[in-house]
Amino acid sequence: MTRSIVNVSSSTVSSWFSITFLQPPTLFSFASRALLRTLEQIVEAPPLAVASLDRSLTTVPICPGAPFGMFEFDDGVRASEQPPRATGRHSAASMKAGRRTPQSLREIALGTLAAEIEGCRACPRLVAWREQVARERRAAFAGQEYWGRPIAGFGDAAARIIVLGLAPAAHGANRTGRVFTGDRSGDFLFAALWRAGLANQPTSSSRDDGLRLRDCFVTAAVRCAPPANRPTPAERDRCLPFARRELELLDGLRVIVCLGGFAWDAALRLCDVRDRPRPRFAHAGELAVNAHITMLGCYHPSQQNTFTGRLTEPMIDAVLARARELAEPESRAATARANVAR
Ligand code: SF4
Questions:
Q1: How much is the pLDDT for 44?
Q2: Is CB count within 10 Å lower at the N or C end of the chain?
Q3: Which residue, among 292, 287, 294, 297, has the nearest Cα to 319 in the 3D structure?
Q4: What's the pLDDT score for residue 141?
């Protein structure tokens, strides 16, 4: 891939992403297919073809039937009071290990989605709570500017392992702006990711602390801090399409580590697992969603669990070691053979 080719068209690509992700659900699939086709052309096109491709991007309408003036064509992302959208066509369960989107394009797409998430105001109760917490602040953080907005996922766009939590903590991620950052749960989790070789440092303190994840992406089922850490089912369902879209973009996904029963249940929904009775959460429990993706249970690293010894460092280390093992294609093939032999 020639990076300069992508750079030449970066502003147009950014606009194209904004257009794609700001569409209503009925148009999303059409636009996303067109988007991926176009981006693949950009990556693969010889340099001379890029100029004409760039012109076509700025002039061809996305959907002939779309009413004019419906979308923003600039690079800005509007704050939205509408619920986030799912594509309705794809799910983690149906994703195949086929042709993968190039890394740089995946990063652009995730960045665009993050901007959309951070502008969401679809849940009145959660918006009021996250902003009230940000205004009033805890005494220990009185001098800090709270984030007070939804939290997007964080990590490696090439990740094969996703760590899925419940929701941001009021004085943790809702303060710092990064998932699982700024509280004891995050301290425990990121130290474990570092020990597992999935992070470049054992701490996560702020959005600009230099933390990098490798082969790992951390996200949550619900993106706004809920009162008493309890989102309602309606709030969960309204927010889950954001996680679904992250999973769709992370097309190398192999393992979903679910931190607690709420995340496990959310992952079942994201993966369209409709088994009855529903597979139950268990620490270190595994569920092969399809030939490519496995769900893995882990107790949530809340203080309630880590202070009482319900979740210890060796326990989470073992889960992450298993996640790394499952992420390797050879390991998955061996597991499948073992299952067949049983
Ligand atoms: Fe939007 Fe999700 Fe926050 Fe609700 S919880 S306001 S859907 S980001």
A1: 44
A2: C
A3: 297
A4: 95
